[in-house]
Design a protein that fits this description.
The chain has about 400 residues and is of the alpha/beta class. Helices cover about 20% and strands about 30% of the residues.
Length: about 400
């Protein structure tokens, strides 16, 4: 049997899979089911290709026939199989969602990294801050339709949903955005900064027009500890309001730096971790922070200008590491979702960096990187998983590796 893409099946789901789905089986074939929990019986609609030549199918639950105990009324009013692709776990009790995320990370670490973190039944992600599962996001990027209305994309679709009351967003961040018309074809960056000021910037418009400030300013004010950053609205900053301070404190603790040491902050963005590392090495030490973003590097140079022993380099991490002639006592990596990869980890190993703090926002990429470190003689000393993106399947993982 080879169902068409619009066919429906009734399935019973099993374990959670990386990416927010659960695993089910149909006539021996794996089916990844979104919007379902383990142990549920659901009616699903198959999505994407379903030919016999495919090793697996994808589906989304459109009716729950036998719900799991952890299913709740959706916490996001616009998410789900007929809505936006924003909150793919909005139907799960938040504490249960953290357990699902922990189980997925444990599974990925075992399968792809050859490392046993915890039993899947005992693993859980930790909450971040006191905000809870809703209203935690400080920045969002929206698309703009041909009629000028802003919207969220549906899951893996160019189609937009123009309701903007996503549960991740606090009301001041998104107020009045749905009722206005914006530059057609733009990516709309909306940020609520630490002064409570909202900034709206359009970028990537058709016709090659430049980035345009539509409300507020081009830079957002962000604070971690006693330092203040002025970050381009289009540059990277952690989306969860409590994440920068949490990660910065954790990096400072786990780095175990002493005065006079050398530290590398790789994929360093605006230098938040560089500031924490600088406090550890003192003015007799050295800190190098590297990132490809010119805007983030400018923000790092401006904020850390009083620290003469901190160097800011705008370049790829691979080229920066290849050019280094010395050795760091500690390296901190916060790579993109694809991970650091073999070449960068090879360079760190060749540089004989004895202590590495590795941060990853995608479970499989993080697990693969952990496996690469372990192949090069590094051992996992500490590992924590954070629910930094409530209502979604995304996590933030942090590990200390030493050799």
């Amino acid at each position: 049997m080879s169902p068409g893409a619009a066919d429906e099946l009734t399935l019973t789901t099993g374990a959670p899979a990386n990416g927010g789905s659960c695993v089910a089986r149909y006539e021996g074939r794996v089916v990844f089911v979104r919007y379902a929990l383990p142990g549920e019986t659901v009616r699903v609609r198959l999505t994407g290709g379903t030919g016999q030549d495919r090793s697996y199918w994808n589906a989304e639950a459109i009716e729950v026939l036998e719900p799991a105990a952890d299913r709740v009324a959706p916490l996001c009013p616009i998410a789900g199989p007929h809505g936006a692709g924003c909150c793919d776990l909005a139907f799960v009790d938040p504490a249960a969602a953290r357990r699902l995320k922990g189980a997925v990370v444990a599974n990925q670490l075992a399968r792809l990294g050859g490392y046993r973190w915890r039993d899947e039944q005992e693993a859980t992600a930790e909450p971040v801050g006191q905000q809870g599962a809703t209203g935690w996001r400080t920045r969002v990027r929206l698309a703009v339709a041909p009629d000028g209305r802003a919207g969220f994309h549906r899951y893996h679709s160019a189609e937009l949903v123009h309701r903007l009351d996503c549960a991740q967003l606090p009301a001041p961040l998104i107020a009045d955005v749905a009722g206005k018309r914006w530059p057609v074809g733009a990516h709309l960056h909306v940020v609520l900064d630490d002064d409570g000021v909202r900034h709206v910037v359009s970028a990537g418009e058709r016709g090659g027009r430049r980035t345009t400030v539509l409300e507020g300013g081009y830079e957002a004010v962000q604070r971690v500890g006693e330092r203040t950053w002025h970050i381009p609205v289009t540059a990277f900053w952690q989306a969860h309001r409590d994440a920068p301070a949490l990660y910065s404190a954790l990096v400072a603790e786990w780095a175990e730096l002493r005065p006079g040491m050398t530290a590398w902050d790789l994929y360093g963005g605006a230098g938040v971790f560089a500031a924490a590392l600088a406090a550890g090495v003192g003015d007799t030490g050295k800190v190098l922070t590297v990132d490809t973003s010119r805007g983030a590097s400018r923000a790092a140079r401006a904020t850390l200008a009083d620290l003469g022993y901190v160097s800011v380099l705008t370049d790829s991490v691979r080229r920066a590491l290849a050019a280094q002639r010395g050795r760091a006592d500690v390296a901190v990596l916060d790579p993109p979702r694809t991970g650091a990869g073999r070449e960068v980890i090879d360079l760190l190993s060749a540089a004989e960096v004895p202590r590495i703090i590795h941060i990853g926002c995608e479970a499989a990429s993080f697990a693969r990187d952990v496996g690469l470190y372990r192949e090069r003689g590094y051992q996992v000393e500490k590992l924590r998983v954070f629910d930094s993106f409530p209502l979604t399947h995304h996590v933030e993982c942090v590990a200390v590796l030493r050799r």
